[in-house]
Amino acid sequence: MRTISRTTKAVLAAGILASSLTVVAATTATANSGDLTASLQPVALNGVDGSGTALVTVRGTRIDIAMAASGLLADAPHAAHIHFGADARHECPAASDDLDASNTLNTSEGAPAYGPVRVSLTKTGDTSPASALAIDRFDTAPQGNLTYERGQIKVSQDVAKAVTRGEAVIVIHGVDHNHNGAYDGATASDLDPSLPTEATDPALCGVIVPN
Ligand SMILES: [Cu+2]
Hints:
By secondary structure, the protein is an alpha+beta fold. The chain folds into 2 domains: about 1-30; about 30-210, Immunoglobulin-like (Sandwich), CATH 2.60.40. Helices cover about 20% and strands about 30% of the residues. The chain is built from 4 helices and 8 strands, in the order H-E-E-E-E-H-E-E-H-E-H-E. A hairpin with a 2-residue loop joins strand 2 (about 50-60) and strand 3. The longest helix has 25 residues, at about 5-30. It is globular. The site of copper (II) ion has 5 residues, from strand 4 and strand 7.
């Protein structure tokens, strides 16, 4: 019967341990998992006197979100999304993003900061970018307070990964620039010319960061 020296056994054991550690590390790297928070603050230049918080949980390619915000135009639909772009800055926009010098920021002007819509935070039904302006399925902020809770939102692998890494941004839209209690004004929305820009301009924004 062959005998294996102690040294050989130790080397073999170390090798097995090292390879199983590699397997554990690889598994952890591919399965997205995280508990995160976004502190929602007024978007630069848009003058919303409000704030909010979103709690986000990622498990694989499913996301749970609970969100509350205040200071929004009351009883008006507020589209809300998770934005992410690989080439974006993974930030909320700054006053310097006001390319047309209008002294307000529209959704497109914020895109270099937060990227395109990747998840529509609708209360029911589809949550893809196709529902970005499905205004009948977003919260209407009674008394200016938005509440939102939805679990098991299916997202793509790259979005799950971006959220887990702290690169995705929550944006709540809808700003009453002239404080007259309604979305109106002569400027058309950059997203849908049939809507006033007030209906879609970004109001509150927060990067989703790991707890
Ligand atoms: Cu958005």
